[in-house]
Amino acid sequence: MTVKTDIEIAQEAKLLPIMEIAQKLEIPEDAVENYGRYKAKLDIHALKERPEKGKLILVTAITPTPAGEGKTTTSVGLTDGLRKLGKNAVVALREPSLGPVFGVKGGAAGGGYAQVVPMEDINLHFTGDFHAIGAANNLLAAMLDNHIQQGNALGIDIKQITWKRAVDMNDRQLRHIVDGLGGKMQGVPREDGFEITVASEIMAVLCLAADLKDLKERLARIIVAYTYDGKPVTARDLKAEGAMAALLKDAIKPNLVQTLEGTPAFIHGGPFANIAHGCNSVVATRTALKLADYVVTEAGFAADLGAEKFVDIKCRMAGLHPSAVVVVATVRALKYHGGVPKAELNQENLEALERGLPNLLQHVGNVKDVFGLPCVVAVNAFPTDTQAELAMVEARCRELGVNVALSEVWAKGGEGGRALAQEVVRLCDEPNRFGFSYSLEMPIEEKLETICRRIYHADGVALTPNAKKQAQQLTELGFDRLPICMAKTQYSFSDDAALLGAPKGFAVTVRNLKVCAGAGFIVALTGDIMTMPGLPKVPAAEKIDVDENGRITGLF
């Protein structure tokens, strides 16, 4: 039997006109701005007076492996499953970046029969939000360099410029560059660099802003450089925030699409969780909470990154209170954490599963004990999973007081998510003691120490001399009460990607601290993490093509 690819399943689907999707949520017609037949943006001002009524459900996961976990697929299938139960549910997800689409991962719109569509559009350009973010980022960079070229009235030290240019592509060649070459009229020569658009502070600002007014105020606070006497230079100083906000006036509007089963879906914003804060936009989430009784959202990578930032940054800033958490795992991935090579993951191996289970249990423990939220483990089913393996996962989770639901959404869509949906509804009705992992009143180093000990289960944190100096400078500038955005490898609880499972006896090294004053957090760079990825030896782009009729292939 030939198994259909994700894109083949998506292309065979009969989509509903986007106005029919909007009508399911009782969105007035004048609030819907069509982008073709199957995509739309919503005018958030037209929905401003509606109260929030929905319960917020976070989908997170174990530490990712090459075996795959299926967090987005589970999010989509769970939402379809909730609607199978007769619930008014929507899913709110991030937009895919072109970097991973053409790099390692390929498409990022779910999989199998649990997808958001039109998947080609969502993965390729969509409604142009990322291009607008990149344009705003690079406008600020151009105005900064032009100010220096035109006399540098602010006294900017070109050795202390922190703002980089951005492009939504994995391009290691642009990490460290020298520009402004070619003579006096070509600009001031200096070291420069690019970040991938999803790591730009503009992305974080757009995703954390409450509305257009708040967006403009946040843009104005962005620090781009420091003067010779150490004073920060902002976008406001360069008079750039108005033009930047103009570029983003449509990008801040959430995008409405649908799942394969016609469930409404909001796809908006897309910061990575290993180098940024990893959540879709506050605007999209709050809009969804006004229109539905259950809102399913996800946070990037594992719970130590995405879920921590969802709670400590997004929920804290936006005043959101989640009702339940889903932790996605696969038997295959847990065996990988237990030391089984990828080629042997289809064979039953209870000993390796036992060794890998602490990774899942540590994430579950963090959700329950640190964040105080009820959770369920969703085991994303594979045909090679054995009953003995599934029983072991269920038994170990029950020891923590957590139920396990088998998720078959990839193969069965919403019908395969019924059991998970039923458990989520039950959890949403339970009281919880939701809280953050650290207090904003803590000094910067104490916040870092607390995250590393409570979430990563490290022995502590070690700051390089440079990071210690930066922490002192940020404290003197009054930024010490901001939350922390950890930039850390997604492949381990530690800052060493090779340490699988639930490692012990390690410290996390912070080598650089940078304030994102517009977004409202401090980024802590650990290990060898970088904000501009590179393409792999065989990029996914090599398999992507389009025929003479415009039909795309290879976008899995």
Number of E-type strands: 25
Major sheet size, sense and barrel closure: 12 strands, mixed
User: Which strand-content bin applies to the residues?
Assistant: 15-25%
Give me the Rg, rounded. Answer: 23 Å
Summing up helix and strand content along with how strands pair, one would put the structural category as alpha/beta
Low-confidence stretches: none
Helix content: 25-40%
Mean pLDDT over the full residue set? 95
Using the alpha-carbon principal axes, give the shape.
Answer: globular
Number of helices: 18
Distance between the termini: 19 Å
Explain this structure to me?
The protein is of the alpha/beta class. Helix content is 34%, strand content 19%. The strands form six sheets. Strands 1, 2, 3, 4, 5, 6, 14, 15, 16, 17, 18 and 19 form a twelve-stranded mixed beta sheet that branches. Strands 20-22-23-21 form a four-stranded mixed beta sheet. The longest helix is centred in the first third of the chain and has 21 residues. The two termini are 19 Å apart.
